[in-house]
Amino acid sequence: MILEFLFRCGHCKRLKPEFDKAGDLLKGNDPPISLAKVDCTEAGKDTCNQFSVTGYPTLKIFRNGEVSQDYNGPREAAGIVKYMQSQVGPSSKELKTVADLDKFLDKNDVGVVGCFEKDSDLKSAYLKVADKLREKVRFAHSASNDILKKLGST
């Protein structure tokens, strides 16, 4: 979900119709993407303070009820839709085979592979970092013994 914190300034007034249009376009998205607004001049003051909103409009992306990151993408409807659709789905790709690993590593782009034998606090922390940095770095993870062996991980 993306949450717009707004005031009644010129920038907010310019963003409002684009944000509304993007919300309408994303209503039927699968999986769903919600856009919501908080007016920092009225009942939303406490919410704006809770999330340290000091400039307007401020856009923040939430995942599982927590702030994942500030939104720094386009400010027109089509750009907001495209950006948010790129945010949907897992931030870390699960690699099940060595072929999956090779395909992931073949791209000429920064990538991080986490190796975990099972679910753990470390894996949860890794996935949270992947959520926060998904725009800058590609993330993948695996529990495959073949992949762990190929990477020299134990």
Task: Give an overview of the whole structure.
The mean pLDDT is 88. The chain has two domains: 2-87, Glutaredoxin (3-Layer(aba) Sandwich); 92-151, Glutaredoxin. It has helices at 10-26, 45-50, 77-87, 98-106, 121-133, 145-151; strands at residues 2-6, 35-39, 58-63, 66-70, 92-94, 111-115, 138-142. It is 41% helix and 22% strand. The chain has a four-stranded mixed beta sheet with strand order 2-1-3-4. It has a three-stranded parallel beta sheet with strand order 5-7-6. With 154 residues, it is of the alpha/beta class. The longest helix has 17 residues, at 10-26.
Overall form: elongated
* Counted beta strands: 7
CATH topology of the largest domain: Glutaredoxin
Radius of gyration: 19 Å
Q: Helix- and strand-based class?
A: alpha/beta
Summary keywords:
154 residues; alpha/beta; Glutaredoxin; 2 domains; 4-stranded mixed beta sheet; 3-stranded parallel beta sheet; elongated
What topology does this entry show?
Layout: E1 2-6, H1 10-26, E2 35-39, H2 45-50, E3 58-63, E4 66-70, H3 77-87, E5 92-94, H4 98-106, E6 111-115, H5 121-133, E7 138-142, H6 145-151
Parallel strand pairs: 1-2, 5-7, 6-7
Antiparallel strand pairs: 1-3, 3-4
Helix pairs in contact: 1-3
In short:
This protein has helices at residues 10-26, 45-50, 77-87, 98-106, 121-133, 145-151; strands at 2-6, 35-39, 58-63, 66-70, 92-94, 111-115, 138-142. By secondary structure, it is an alpha/beta fold. The chain folds into two domains: 2-87, Glutaredoxin (3-Layer(aba) Sandwich); 92-151, Glutaredoxin, CATH 3.40.30.
